[in-house]
Structure formats: C-alpha cells, structure tokens
Amino acid sequence: MENITNRIGKYSPEDDDSIIYEMSDDQGVACALYLDIEHHMIMNIETREDRRHEGLATRVFEAADDDINAYLAPEFCRTPEGQMWAETMKYADVMDEETAEKIVYGE
Q1: Residue 67 belongs to domain spanning
Q2: Which residues, other chains included, contact 41 with Cβ-Cβ below 8 Å and sequence gap of 6+?
Q3: pLDDT in tens, the chain (107 residues)
Q4: How many other CB atoms are found less than 10 A from the CB of residue 87?
Q5: For the chain, what is the domain count?
Q6: Which CATH number do you get for residue 21?
C-alpha cells in the first residue's frame, strides 16, 4: 500500500530546510518531492528507479498542491528529465522567474 506523508527536512546537509512530500511503499520511499518552504516551489523530485514512469511524481505533486498550492520551477531551473515531466503538467502553476531566481540564487 502506498502512503503520502509530509515533513520538514533537508535534501542534503548543506541545504536549507524543505517541505518534503514522500510516497512510501513496502520497500521504503518510492518518490520524494522537495519544496521551498516559503514559496512552495519544487526544488527537487526523485522517484526510485524501480517505480519510474508510474505517475508517482505527479501524484505526490498533486497531494502537495492540494495541501499548500505547490509550484513548478521555471524552465531555467529544470533538469532535462524535469523539463519532460513539467511539459506533462500543463495544469500546474509555474513560479515566476524573478521569485525563482531569488529562491535559487539568494536575495
């Protein structure tokens, strides 16, 4: 059974705190979405290799969006894989570039 939860944590020790939405299955975390705490923009999303292409990232994003109004990062912030995924998320709000630059590069 899959379960989506959220918590505050870090992507890596040097990073600022993020809001983390995680989908877990019987093998552990299957997908994790990291959002900027203040603006709720996606900073990172990871899906375990054996669960890719099952729509988990979309389901986790939708849970976050329902809870806190999550935003996709603008194109300049995305990896090639993130760009392909974002192109499927036509209904999702995208963070404006000026705010995204402040989030990514500091104010």
Answers
A1: 3-105
A2: 35, 70, 71, 72, 73, 95, 99, 100, 103
A3: 789 999 999 999 998 999 999 999 999 999 999 999 999 999 999 999 999 999 999 999 999 999 999 999 999 999 999 999 999 999 999 999 999 999 999 86
A4: 10
A5: 1
A6: 3.40.630.30
